[in-house]
Amino acid sequence: MNMNPRSVTLNVHVFVAVASYLACFFFPAIYVGGNFEPQSSLGLLLMGWAAALELNFGWFANPAFLIAAFLAQKKPRASAILAVVALALALSFPLYRHVRVHEISSQSPVSAYGWGYALWVMSMALLAAGQFARLRLGRESLVLLAALSAGGMVAMMYGIYGASGSGGLQAHAKERDRVFDASCVTAGMQVVRRAKDVRSVFLAPDWSWTIAPRGSRASKLKYRTYGAIMRNGLLRSGKLDFVVTTAPEGQQGYFQFTPDNMDGITVPQPQGRYAVLTRARDFPWPLGLQGETIEIKDRGDGSLLASASYVLDTQSGRYCGPPGNTFSAQ
């Protein structure tokens, strides 16, 4: 079937609008909470209908837009009306300052809006302006010009919103970079002296993070963490007679473990010649930074054998600290 070239030209704005709509799913739609956690546009599309239970009808811009795009050629007037309804619903979304994420029973405050939301609104502005221009003007060039002008205006407004820092996202990123860079100055490892004849260790707490790279390009490494207890590996190595740890949270005292008793027994005082002391670095929670300082000390004289400190940006995967996955004073 041959299509009328003029009909195809009149529908270019529809294709551009649909392309903008599809593109929005590649970007975060919103950021929530004090740590600006990004929320997937696709995830909001799949689950956003539930917001209607709380009288948030912004999600219904999606079916209105899709029906408007489908009717663009055959019923341009109905399509134009639906496109305007979709645009109005999309623009109403910022009126609701909280959204449900992760769990149906929890709400998080909206901290900022991402390019996913901007492209979503842009697609509806493109379609609405193009359809009304099609009804009023009829000329192909003017229809496309009107649609692109509306879309460009939305893009410009979002650009101003981002550049001005109104949403706080840019300021948040700058503060995270500043704290990360400052913390990297003190991150690293030093070994003062080597331990000799290590037969017992006091772990406070008995917990370690393994920081492993994800990806294969050395210049683009990103890191993630794996948590695990340390005592089992130490005892199974056959190099230690026993390990003493602090009691789990909510309990008092200390626990002693041996290769023959991995379940442990309670002891009144920490024992062991050497201590591995781990404390979390104090970062503001919203920045999404994680870090620890680990010290290995001789409990006999209180002297420091070795120390290590690291910082990890849990959002971007940046890491500063000792190279490799091991830290030891042996």
TrEMBL record:
Keyword NAD: no
Keywords on record: Membrane, Transmembrane, Transmembrane helix
TM segment ranges: 12-34, 46-71, 78-97, 117-135, 142-161
Protein name as catalogued: Transmembrane protein
